[in-house]
Amino acid sequence: MAEAFFNEVAAAIGAEWINRSEETLRRYGENTMPGGDRRPLGVIYPGSTAEVQAIVKAANRHGVALYPVSTGNNIGLGSRSAVHAGQVVLDLGRRMNRILEIDETLAFAVVEPGVSYQAMYDELVRRGDKFMVDVTSGPPQGGMLGNALDKGAGYGPYFDHFGFSCGMEIVLGNGEVLRTGDGALAGSELPNWHVSKYSFGPILDGLFAQSNFGIVTRMGIWLLPRPPAVRSFHFTYPDDDDLAEIVDICRALKLSNFVPTLLRVANDVYLCGSEHPSPEYRPGSRTSISDAGRRALREKDRLGAWTVSGAFYGPSMAAIEPQIERVRAAFGKSGKATYIPHEEALGFHALQVAINACSGVPGVGELGLLKWRPGGGNLWFLPGTPMVGSIANECQRISRRIYAEHGMDYMIMNVCSARFARGLHVITFDRENPDENARANACYEALARAYAERGIFVGRAPLDYHALHMGQAMPAFRDSCTAIKAALDPAGVIAPGRYGIA
Amino acid sequence: MQTDFTAEQLRDPAIREAADILGTCVHYGFCTNTCPTYVLSRDENESPRGRIDLIRAMLESGGPPKPQTVAHLDSCLSCLSCMTTCAAKVDYAHLIDRARIHVERHHRRPPAERALRALLAFVLPRPRLFQVALKLGRFGRPLQRLLPVRLRPLLAMIPERTHTEILAPQVFRAEGEKRARVALLAGCAQQALDGNINAATIRLLTRHGCEVVVAAGAGCCGSLTLHMGRENEAMAAAAANVRAWMRERRGEGLDAVIVNASGCGTTVKDYGHLLARMALAGEAQEIASIARDVTEFIAGIGLRPVAQERPRLRVTYHDACSMQHGQRVTRPPRDLLRAAGFEVVDVPEKHFCCGSAGTYNLLQPATAETLGQRKAGNIDSTAPDVVAAGNIGCLTQLRRYVGAPMAHTAELLDWATGGPLPPALAGVTLTSRPAPQREEAPAVAAAPAPNDDAGFW
After folding, report:
1. A322, B446: Cβ pair inside 8 Å?
2. Burial (CB count <10 Å: 0-12, 13-18, 19+), residue A303
């Protein structure tokens, strides 16, 4: 069955684009999660939508499960590892990495799955730096299309990466090619495809975010004109419970969109962890970092129990200054916050990450937090809180308790918008230590249960826990997903199991 | 990564160090994204992560390495792009150096390859010999087809024009008030290929109040031989430099060692490690601590551009890997060029190596050519008037592929501060680019303190 599939694919796209070497299979199965690696059956590098279509049709004929990845930088959420061992990884990033179009009048780009934030940034700079792509603070080589489809986010006005995408081309599980939005019109000249999100009929785009109904091979992504000046502001707060005050101030700043960026509210371990490994962790440690240890880190790095970062855009630094003064007044009211101005923040490596992120500049600065503990284990737990200070503090208490019970270090950044803050919880652990690996897994599951009991769902999830989270959904949601899967991918060849959809 | 060295193996400090480095790799795989050979081949063994695994197996087994392992290690550019992107901060630079030393000691290469490597290791660090070799090479170019295949790329790499200027030990006096006394690493191959770079650097430094010493006894930094696995030769070269510069430091004083070839700069800044097990270790560390790229140093003391009629050119700045990944010096050259009145543009995919990589383009010409052409395409896409770089290797490699004139950053800065036009720009029609709009929007008075409304205005 598998051999016949690979033979058919080789005939369709060329045998040189199939890789089944021992080293490749081992590496593509690797991930950072507690559940272990998952060796794929092979890796295929398609070069076009037509080739993807041919592969999907072959998979239908031979009953082979495919697992598409764009650039495979989803560290902590699955990397390039498939849902199950024995699936065939479709690595779209190797050859389908073209920027198909940049429209400088209407400010949008059209990309294939392999286009990374760095590649887009480089291209925009090359064209005169007139436009800004909204970036994550994750790996610069991460894929824009994959991030948008996984509901990833950045920090600028266009932070909602799926929301600021427009018009897709998808190879469905049945092998048909679908265009969404205005692209659905029969024909080939489609001037509104990547500029109008809501066209005739149902909005199908959302079906392809966090699902397994098809393989997106092209997407329009909107760009922001680059402001002449970006001026950041930063405040540190001394106490854990100050989160409530911060969240309430951020809500007001964002509801009226006075601050154009999101506000990054990171705890001490998150920011200091980007700079150094844990000073207290020893192999086999079963305890969280102490409060005294956290205080020492804060003093060393001159950061707070919470540090708030955001930025203004404007025609010049001077023109932005009055807005900075307004924000200073808002955060300064209680007397707890310490202000760090933009110029000073440029000298703080940890704050430079925020400046880059708000400026649409990809960077590797935040990847350091993966080294907080050795051993390469990394999970992201991604629930959120309404922008109400008391609820944010309640969530903080839930998380702190569960991290401590499992001997993990509470590492979080709350990314605050107007009504909601995503809580980026990081769990770093020694994956090579079976006890710690098991505790990391138990910690994640306990967090997932506790938040679900509080009525809070996750926004994204590591591959190991897709089934768990789908099990937390109401039956009608599960049934709807299953029914759509049956309609669009009847043979179940696209990533069976991803996001808990068989 | 788990390792399995014996206690006896671990008694060797070099193996101990390698084992510690290997232990830090957790296979995140970020390195694969930016590794040129992996991106080109998608072969795991052509990635840093794959090579780390191969090095582990090779060092654990101890004896002669497998030929495939040697091939995968040889194809590594040592560009260190992987180190910039690695979240676990794996010290790949020292690991690949250790691996190359092991290969050199335990692997017998085919005779032609041995001869080629021996030739390069002997000739390149000796500028006068290299000068002769360049002349012979040019003369022999028509007979290229008669040479063994492995030697042909050497002739192809010889630039059409070179300007050899080999500096004798001497002191160049500071202009005006003396602000610092610095040693210049005059270098080896660079002196034979392009003596203008040192001349411009010296003019730039003396014009900024620096007394510049070309120290007796200093020569090749050891980088070329180190990256060929010839540790003893590299250490001997490094030790000679440390002794020469320490004589000056103890004598009339030395504030900095200036390096204008970033490949060399990376090595000099690492002398503390290279000579860690020698009696000279402390002095080596001291020299490493005062080593500066010329742009780092000038940025520190402040550039003094002179007002003169010069066209405002677009400079596309190429980051040498040794500069951006090895030394992490990225802002000073850009800041200085901007301060000097140039429009500075980045190269798309700037993290990617140009294929020069020391002797790489001589030993791995096919990959080097692919990378050189890829880099040139990216550079050309920026429509530069001139391309600047801070490393002779990159300049020599890219001049083969890039359409625009190329100059060392120091040559452009020298020109902007009163020096002569860089030779690369001689005879080129230079048209000024429009100056940027500098009109700043006025500040607006701050509004009253925020109220308690739901929003914030």
Report:
1. yes
2. buried
